[in-house]
Design goal:
36% of the residues lie in helices and 27% in strands. By secondary structure, the protein is an alpha+beta fold.
Length: 211
């Protein structure tokens, strides 16, 4: 959002022209966001047309709307965090393979104050709340779901910023005991996590159009 405004201001300030000869592009002349997106979308569709002949494995996909929501949330994360100062954490959407399935997820550390967005999978990183092994603690992580967290989350207000999110605004030193106990009692995840970068995730509707 902010970067688009800066780009348009930059183009206007220096009275720049573009030369864009990609299919569906702007050609020679004035820059326009609509023209840029048109060329981008047409080029994207052309790439998807070629995928069926190149795919050796089943591709990783998510619905168009979800991809856009996750991207907007992550893109706006820094600004959102600045608005909230340091009192409450804004997580980033990440993507993992769990039990052979692509899962959007966020990481929540030790039950800290958080803006917890709509997500099916929550990775609980435990440092302070890690279970004791002998006389020491070793950081680990556990995996839970929003369904399991609903009894706690329903007590907090929901807001919207590209996606709905829960606003868990409490002092770190006064974290609710029920949340702390829930996190402590989760079984540690023994297997590794396969992190998936966003460039590996395809638009399911667009891919289905050409397969």
């Amino acid at each position: 959002m902010g970067s688009k405004r800066k780009k348009n201001s930059f183009v206007s300030a220096f009275d720049l022209l573009v030369s864009d000869y990609q299919t569906g592009g702007m050609g020679d002349g004035e820059y326009s966001p609509q023209g840029f997106l048109s060329g981008w979308n047409i080029g994207n569709e052309a790439a998807y047309k070629s995928f069926p002949n190149k795919m050796k494995e089943k591709p990783l996909t998510l619905p168009t709307q979800e991809i856009e929501q996750y991207w907007k949330w992550n893109y706006d994360k820094k600004l959102f965090q600045e608005e909230l100062q340091e009192d409450i954490f804004v997580p980033k959407y990440m993507f993992f393979i769990l039990n052979g399935v692509l899962k959007p997820a966020i990481v929540w550390t030790d039950g800290i104050p958080i803006t917890l967005p709509e997500v099916e999978t929550v990775i609980m990183y435990r440092k302070e709340l890690a279970p004791k092994k002998g006389f020491s603690k070793k950081p680990d992580f556990a995996i839970t779901t929003k369904h399991e967290l609903d009894p706690f989350l329903s007590k907090y207000p929901t807001r919207e910023r590209y996606v709905n999110y829960y606003f868990l605004d409490y002092d770190y030193d006064e974290r609710p005991k029920e949340i702390i106990n829930f996190i402590k009692n989760l079984a540690p995840h023994k297997e590794g996590l396969i992190n998936i970068t966003t460039d590996k995730i395809l638009d399911s509707e667009l891919l289905e159009k050409y397969t």
